[in-house]
Amino acid sequence: MLRLFRYLKPYTLLILLAIALLFVQANADLALPDYMSDIVNIGIQQGGVENAVPVAIRQAEMAKLTIFMSTADKTRVLSDYTLMDKNSPDFAANAKLYPLLAQEPVYILNKLDSSEIDWLNPVMGKAFLAISGIQQALADPAKASAIASSMGFDLAKLPPGTDIFTVLGQLPAAQISQFSSTFESKYAALDDKMIIQAAAAPIKVEYTALGMDTGKFSTAYIIRIGALMLLITLLSGACTISVGYLAAKTAAGLARDLRRNVFQRVESFSNTEFDQFSTASLITRSTNDITQIQMVVMMMMRMVFYAPIIGVGGVIRALAKSASMWWVIALAVIMLLGLILSAFAIALPKFKIVQSLIDRLNLVTRENLSGMMVIRAFDMQRFEETRFDQANKDLTRVNLFINRVMVIMMPVMMLIMNGVTVLVIWVGAQQVAQSTMQVGDMIAFMQYAMQIVMAFLMMAMMFIILPRAAVSGERIADVLETEPVIKDPQSPKHFIEPFKGTVEFRNVSFRYPGAEEDVLHNISFTAQPGQTTALIGTTGSGKSTIITLIPRFYDVTEGAVYIDGTDIREVAQHELRSRIGYVPQKGMLFSGTIESNLLYGDETASDETLKLAADISQAAEFIATKPEGLQTEVAQGGTNVSGGQKQRLSIARALVKKAPIYIFDDSFSALDFKTDALLRKALKGYTGSSTMLIVTQRIATIKDAEQIIVLDEGAIVGKGTHETLMKDCKVYQGIALSQLSKEELA
């Protein structure tokens, strides 16, 4: 998979943009539990009161609060407020907000920054709690007496109606400090959030005393935070859609590029490379394997980048809510990692087998479809059904094993997720009961834990498809990184003009890649322009092998092939093959029309040229019987025409090229003798000065050839005309007498 990363370079900008959007999306998703926590803590439990710092407070109430503050704290607190009465400039505007202002002075909170608010929260919160505690204690006579005695006075001796806070304000500072430390010890274990939550109730009482409608506080806060959550959700949704689009565009573009590059690479392969990769395997690599890569790239962009952000961010935010419950997340992560790694270790070896089994299934299917007529002719349907069934069962068995391993992951992960939920509620409930954690924070922690587990679920999904995609990536990279054995020279030469087309084999020996012995031994001959050079010999003597060396389908092992005195290895392949009209042993037609197949020879050829080529190849007669003529559709591989018609169209295609060198590799084998004779006679007049090389098994086809090369076991055992060889070459004599009578050979 890593070997294909360089093909993602054109999509770097899209990937970076997707990562940026994923970062925004992850932060938006991580912010939602925080806001939900605020709704529960502040909107519901605190009634919409966000801080322990009231926006307004009666002068008398402020006097009570400052009793238990140090001189420095009292001075700083009072400087953060402005005392307002009927004579103040902004009286009218503030009187609407705080109706009690019309009757008595009120302290109004100045505009402060967040750092000052953070400082005020514990100071004002503890003061509110102290005052509230004393007021609650005064309702119980026993508790009231205990407080009074601890301060050094007797409530019974105070005049009726005496305000205890007035008395407390007159006590020495040392006595007040000792008393306030008693209350502060009660709230020492509380953090700022818990102090704010505890102070919310007395602050609401103060707001009610000021004439404010406290009933709207909670609703307004919930609506405001809810609207913000909705906007964040919409932002997250927009990011999700955008990332999906970018991921699809990148994955589809990469798949397109890989298919194009694989196709172009295969187009440059010589026969040596085709011996490495079977046709079925190349088809699987170009389709199934690239589809796997496309899917995994899209999933990676949507999940692999997102999951770590959400996972790490979730851990950080969860610990910020309750650091004491870190072990819950750690336990979940350890269990998930163990599960994923175990499944990965079991399934990975099987993923490597799957693709080879798909190759096998593809091969069997392709052979069955291509050889259907042969299968039916030999009544081998049952055998082929068994062969296909075996390949299908092998693939199914491995896939079932992988799926059984992977299917276990989801229920186990859901069990872990639900277990984490129960554990968070159980531990969190105890902390809420001990006033060390707020209910909203427990809910947020639970949501963050779920986000962390979901991040690992995403990673688990990637682990399911990544191993197979990694195998596919290796298979594709193998094709892309296979360098063709036959290459153009760095500084190619050009054929000498005017081009004649003299083909010379000079001491040529050839050995197939990986073979132990040569199949051709010291081959030397020259094919002259305007003449026919025929190659004949027993089956496996090397006739077709010699032919494949001329267009450089293979390169010689020793010696050299020259055209017009130039070594063909020093010329660009395009220039070499542009001078050759090649008719393969097995006629190959492409889906399209007869005309489109003939235009393969020369796409600029005129209608007259096409008709002339069809006439010479003896194809005009059967083309004329078709209602559409040259526009007759040709099925894939030419399956809707006979073998002889296919050969004639292949010959016509080569003739359209008007090449100076023609190679016919046993191209007349499917023709009857009459058509063969007419075709050779027409060829002689059409090819004129062209060099013709013919491979054939028929003596009748080459009797009139100017030069006949007789091969036996990869070596030349005879060279000359028909008459000469009948006298001097026993191999040729044996072939000739096996086909024709002495009278016919005379």
Descriptive keywords:
single chain; alpha/beta; ABC transporter transmembrane region fold; Rossmann fold; 4 domains; 4-stranded antiparallel beta sheet; 15 strands; 10% strand
Overall description:
This protein has 746 residues and is of the alpha/beta class. The chain folds into four domains: 2-36 and 223-480, ABC transporter transmembrane region fold, CATH 1.20.1560.10; 50-212, no CATH class; 503-579 and 659-745, P-loop containing nucleotide triphosphate hydrolases (Rossmann fold); 588-648, no CATH class. It is 62% helix and 10% strand. The protein contains 28 helices and 15 strands. The strands form four sheets. The chain has a six-stranded mixed sheet with strand order 9-12-13-6-14-15, sandwiched between helices. It has a four-stranded antiparallel sheet with strand order 5-4-7-8, with helices on one face. Strands 1-3-2 form a three-stranded antiparallel sheet. Helix 14 (326-370) runs antiparallel to helix 16 (381-433). The longest helix is centred in the first third of the chain and has 53 residues, at 215-267. The protein starts with 11 loop residues before the first helix and ends with a helix. 33% of the residues are buried. The model has no long low-confidence stretch (mean pLDDT 84).
